[in-house]
Amino acid sequence: MSSKDILITGGASGIGLGIATHLGQLGHNIVIADINLEPAQQAAKTLTSQGINASAAALDVSNAEQVGALPDKIGHIDVLVNNAGIQHVARLEDFPAAKWQQLINVMLVGPALLTQVFLPEMKARNYGRIINVGSIHSLVASPFKSAYVSAKHGLLGFAKTLALEVSEHDITINTLCPSYVKTPLVEQQIAAQAKENNMSEEEVVRKIMLEPMPKKAFIDIQELAGCAEFLLSPAAKNICGQTLVLDGGWVAR
Ligand code: NAD
Hints:
GO terms for molecular function: 3-hydroxybutyrate dehydrogenase activity. This protein is α/β, with parallel strands linked by helices. The chain is built from eight helices and seven strands.
């Protein structure tokens, strides 16, 4: 496959960094866009030291002005990975309204804005691959994560709708939905979940994160990177508007 120009939001850490590294090692050109510029620059430097063509850009995906200015800043892209994400765990009565809005803006409005600004050129070139990072919580709920669960459910509706709007072009949009992956985002939420559920942190990991999965194991970042590679392959040319669930059988149960 010819090398593609790939933008990965939230690529300075966790799943985004794993996808950036894997796709870079396959010979693609990588732009890491993250609200935290310094770790994004550090990540791009590490990739560059491995011989990967990588750069970093400062971006808050929920800021329409910044998103609108991005094409002029980074140029053309073939592949957009909407990965940036945050979490807040609280029962609804205690959930600050501003936090609710922020989660929706980062994880639902952000992907829509980014797709909107890069879509015209993808259509003009008749090629584009859009990969959203959803979650098991795109499909099943979890108490005290109302904003996160709502945003991640919304991403599936967005992908399905856009699949219809790009049907005349060689453009696909799909959503990867992993259950739990050991990243800073998950490590940070364990304590909050323990508090809200009145459990120890060890119980949160065992009962909430692993027990619902028949395979009872965290998902490895490389599995997500492999799915992204597949979605860029010719075999996935007609996979559009779909949800790839990496959950060890959770939803099947
Ligand atoms: P992470 O915290 O390791 O990485 C998230 C990255 O997003 C960070 O680099 C952060 O700086 C960046 N970011 C946050 N807000 C941003 C904004 N407004 N604009 C641009 N960048 C921003 O988390 P992760 O676990 O790697 O999460 C990546 C994605 O995977 C998220 O969408 C998350 O919801 C999803 N996900 C994670 C898990 C898991 O178990 N870790 C499971 C399912 C889905």
